[in-house]
Design brief:
This protein has 16 helices and 18 strands. It is an alpha/beta fold. The chain folds into two domains: 198 residues, Maf protein, CATH 3.90.950.20; 225 residues, 3-Layer(aba) Sandwich (Rossmann fold). The two termini are 48 Å apart. The relative contact order is 0.08.
Length: 462
């Protein structure tokens, strides 16, 4: 065998031949697709202590406890913990000195008969890196993008093998770990939109960096974490939730940003909310391009901005989708409730430039068509003209020649809405000006919330 496996079969065989790795497989909802790889390879007795497929809900509940949903994070965590603890209880004394135990679990909804719904699943592996050491758990969520059930099952099996392989070979190298997850797959077949490490071996791991790495490698277009820093699966936390999304670099977070969300919240959501909707969430989205320094992601700056936004109680979204219509499409995967995208006059003007639609056959008409077709509204915050000092709002905004009637159509039909400015003094300095002046002028602090001042000061002295 070469050092670099050339197939999933090679990975499964190499794991089987490693006599120190021994564990169990528990798979519900989409067959024994992962365990099957280890049986197809030779020497499976060296790895597989047990496999189980608890399809019947009552049997599943008897083993892992009753759950409200069977394809969920809580269910896969219960599964992987139950199986791991049972394995140690039964084999710890007899095999503990020669085995690094693991349990693998998944719960998946794959394509069913006459089924066109979302296909996705949760995978987890709890394992020992070293003999007699405490175990750690790696958890991920995947969207299965193939149309046919047989292709989804194949992708699931490959992904499971990749997860176990990466756990034992790349758990201390995040970049290699994420890359290994999609070996022999493609982002057209699977989207991994959540990845977390937990347990004593990973006590120093910041899962927000894991979320960022998924976006950086193009494994998912966006990841989300909460004000407490918990990385979450967007579809779970945004389900039936109206959203107010503010896009920006947030370098730094300013009082202007906070006022934009406050003013937008005064007019949104004003219609279309269902009776069972959750409370509206404010989401601050940072594009990957805004985190680059000399072509590389600036992790320190990323964590500074994330910490600031979280301290202010905001949900943070990291994306690699600069086009507004792509972000709108992502949000519509998560919720059918009203969505408002908050932006400045300057960014509204940018949307009418050709660069945002140059890859679309229908040009700017297709770009706006994709953006507005799902009922998303643009909530536009005013700005003061640098030339004549005029306050420019969505009401008096002048679209480029040839597009003014198009803009008027959007405005009159509520697709673009004007929001107020709570304090026009906030319009006097941009974020760039604040950062440029922070080293020698103290008055910048009145434009920046207290939670963000340390970020400004650290950049001023860097």
């Amino acid at each position: 065998m070469s050092d670099l496996p050339r197939s999933s079969y090679d990975k499964a065989l190499a794991l089987n031949l490693d006599s120190s790795i021994y564990g169990t497989f528990a798979e519900i909802g989409a067959g024994q697709e992962v365990a099957n790889w280890f049986f197809r390879a030779s020497a499976s007795a060296g790895t597989v202590a047990k496999t189980i497929s608890a399809y019947d809900m009552k049997i599943s509940d008897a083993l892992y406890g009753k759950g409200e949903r069977y394809v969920s994070k809580s269910r896969v965590v219960d599964m992987v913990n139950y199986e791991y603890e049972l394995l140690e209880e039964r084999l710890g004394e007899s095999r503990g000195s020669e085995s690094r135990f693991f349990s693998f679990a998944n719960t998946v909804k794959a394509r069913g008969y006459q089924d066109s719904g979302e296909c996705h699943g949760w995978l987890a592996v709890r394992f020992q890196e070293q003999f007699f050491k405490e175990s750690g758990t790696i958890l991920l969520h995947v969207r299965l993008l193939d149309e046919e059930n047989v292709d989804q099952m194949e992708a699931l099996g490959i992904l499971g093998v990749n997860l176990i392989w990466a756990a034992y070979h790349h758990s201390r190298d995040l970049s290699a770990f994420v890359s290994s997850l999609i070996d022999f797959l493609s982002v057209e077949r699977v989207e991994i939109d959540m990845l977390t490490f937990s347990g004593a071996p990973f006590a120093m791991v910041d899962n927000r960096i894991c979320a960022l790495e998924l976006v950086r490698q193009g494994v998912t277009p966006a990841t989300v974490f909460m004000p407490d820093g918990e990385v979450v699966q967007a579809a779970e936390v945004f389900y039936k939730t109206p959203l107010l999304l503010l896009r920006g670099s947030f370098l730094p977070v300013t009082n202007l940003h906070l006022d934009m969300l406050t003013q937008a919240g005064e007019v949104f959501p004003n219609k279309g909310v269902s009776e069972k909707a959750r409370p509206c969430r404010e989401v601050c989205e940072v594009s990957l391009s805004n985190l680059l320094r000399d072509g590389e992601v600036d992790l320190v700056s990323f964590l500074d901005r994330a910490n600031t936004l979280q301290a202010l109680g905001k949900v943070v979204m990291i994306s690699n989708a600069p086009e507004f219509h792509r972000v709108a499409a992502m949000l519509r995967l998560y919720t059918r409730e009203p969505v408002g995208m908050v932006l400045s006059i300057g960014l509204l003007n940018e949307l009418f430039k050709e660069k945002w639609s140059e890859n679309l056959a229908g040009g700017i008409l297709e770009s706006f068509g994709r953006l507005f077709k799902t009922g998303i509204a643009l909530l536009v915050y005013p700005w003061r003209s640098r030339n004549g000092g005029e306050l420019v709002t969505a009401d008096n905004f002048r679209a480029p020649d040839g597009l003014r009637h198009l803009y008027q159509h959007f405005f009159e039909n509520g697709m673009i809405q004007s929001i107020a400015c709570g304090n026009e003094e906030l319009l006097e300095m941009t974020g760039r000006q604040i950062m440029a002046n922070a080293s020698d002028r103290k008055e910048w602090k009145k434009w920046v919330p207290e939670e963000a001042r340390s970020l400004v000061e650290s950049h001023a002295h860097s």
